[in-house]
Amino acid sequence: MKLSKRHLAIGAAFVSAMIVTGIGIAAWIVYEPALPEIARPSPSSFDRGLVAKGEQLATVGDCIVCHTAPNGAPFAGARALPTPFGTLFSNNITPDEKTGIGAWSLAAFSRAMRQGVGRDGSHLYPALPYEHFTHVSDDDLKAIYAFLMTRQPVSQQAPENQLLPGLGFRPLLAGWKLLFLRQTAFEPQANESAEWNRGKYLVDGLAHCGGCHTPRNLGGGEEKGREFAGGVAEGWNAPALDTTNPSAATWNADSLFAYLKTGSNREHSAAGGPMGPVAEGLSRLNDADVRAIAVYVASRMHPSRDGAPAAVAAEAGIDNRSAAAAAHPEADLLFEGACSGCHAPSAPMNVNGRPLLSSTSDLKADDPRNAVQTLLRGIEPPGEKGPYMPSFSNTVTDRQLAELLAYARARFTNKPAWPDLEAAVGDIRKENAE
Asked: What is the extent of the structural domain holding 294?
């Protein structure tokens, strides 16, 4: 059929209309208005009780960890945040008017926390876990705002982000939000206790536990339907917080509370990697909220107990030294010289309550990553006190470290040997150097 000029004109007009409509919809999705600047509020204008509440809530969110550079001023930003898409640098959230949030209203702050939009209308990267903060109540955001606005202002501009080509174009983040951001308020479950609901509110919201403990898809969004099934954070495996956790039987609300509050638990191990600063922060949180978090997480690991506390499955200390030494004689000598002072079953630290290696989740895990990282990076106490272990990165070769780990797994667990361990050690060492 031959089309007339009239038909062609109508078709062209239709196509043009569709293009304009598409551009309009895209612009509507991408565009966010700037909100007016305000004069920095005086610290004395905020109620002291509200500020104290905000301090506790900011502690739950671990704001100081991401927004403080090594040896930097608290909350002044510029901390490097590695991601699969490049390196982001955290923003200054002190009340400095030029480089921080001193000119931000409560409305601008709340929009950033829940929608990932800066005061100037720019889209923020989801390193700020606004997909979790969307669940936080108005009152709690108001309290956090009061706390931050009463901190010491610091003039510090974050370095430019170092992202893969094209990903520095912030309007693309509107598409990411369209795919992955679900703005929903927290809804308590009537059939659960107030403590359980408080724990869920904190875990799903400010604590953003799923940010590390949930697997992510290729777009960097958390995989729906697999909440708390385990993830990766800063080169460490973040274990599952559900029934699939291989050490679920050794966790209950009491042991989780002790671990979260102190960074160590007899039936597990010491908190290492990015979990260390989390435990340090929770050590300053009120006991009731830490207990609520523990109760909720325990219910994820033991969902069929109808609220009854799970009994910790105590394991007898495993020590297969003879068999392990026969299989790894060099590592047996290395362990005696470098490790036995702290980790031999009869070592004073073990006798006085330090977790036995036979209880260590990382040594029993199917993936050796965290065990490798512990030896390569060590464990630094995040505060003035806490568990400590030196790094062996510069003192042992990949082969020696692999032998030592194979020996420890053979001696202190009944699990099968890790395959290709030396290659795994080498790969993780390279990752750490990048």
From this structure: 194-301
